[in-house]
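I am going through a labmate's work and have reached the protein record below. What it holds is a sequence and that sequence's fold in token form. Please read both lines and tell me whether the tokens look consistent with the sequence. Do not assume that whoever made the record got everything right. Thanks in advance; the entry in question is below.
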Amino acid sequence: MPDFSDAIRYAQGHEVPWPRDPAAEPAKWGVHHEDPPPYNRLRGPVHARGGVSGVIRVGAEEVASWGEPDRADLTFSVAKTYLALLAGVAQGRGLLDPNERISSRLPGIGFDDPHNREITWAHMLEQTSEWHGSCLGMPDQVEHNRRVAHDPKPPQGRKGEARALQRPGSYWEYNDVRINQLSLALLHLYRQPLPEVFGQSVLQPLGGGRDFRWVGYDDAWVDIGGLGMQSVPGGTHWGAGVSISARDQARIGQLLLDGGIHAGQQLVPAAWVERMQQPCAIAPFYGWLTWLNRQGGMFADASRESWFMVGAGGHYVWMDPKHRAVVVVRWIDPAHSPGFVTRVARVLAGR
């Protein structure tokens, strides 16, 4: 049995410096404070968190866990990858072609003007859409010039400062407003609340879903077929988002490691899962709402086949095909995540 105790001690000794209760010190919790006013506020519910937790699976078996692995905590932008999985399920049902223009299938939801009508599902999934507009009251400009830890591009200006838009597919930018627009499009595509689809199509078949929640902003309700449905965000930037346990995150990571198949059932098309791992032509560190380690830019000591779901607040789900491993760590200080990855990688490599 591999011994990950050193890595676990390291993780637990380097908790993210956010208060465990968002209400205790609001100014030290979350990422919305960096936004220009009036958008630097929460728009949906948040809740108290646990401490550093995690799960490690090797060869589809759980070999280590720590903290509270069954506690459902907010997971921030790990939820982006869940949107990619929902798009994959839709593709498997014949509901979308990743290379088609979204406007051709879903007119009237924000993809109709001359600039936006060129946008495909693939553009949205790889974050090169350059979608322009306002989604549920939030303009895309709020996220212009955003910097995230694993983006090697130098700053182009101040966050929220307008920049010239490029043609869809020609510029990569991490932009949560556009991700929310993708989620809205998927809601219109399914005509069913996305948390229900995700539970029925992914989590429940995996044996997970206990205490899972995926909620939207307080005012993010839309009419679909005469029914009010809440559009959910692909993160917790402005509150709301996915609350899920580390064990369920590991189950989802295992599904991806296994090419979308579980217990003989193809939950997500294998070709879609493979495509999620392929580098974006203009941002080779990124796939379809996943982070890649092809050149070691994410973590130098992780295998080059490794790919990741990443969320603010120190959330990482690491899929390592080389070692048939899935590693989940939550609420670790991101500045110390390389130290944790290095310690786990040494054990996986037998060093």
Notes: Residues 5-78+243-348 form a domain with the Beta-lactamase fold (CATH 3.40.710.10).
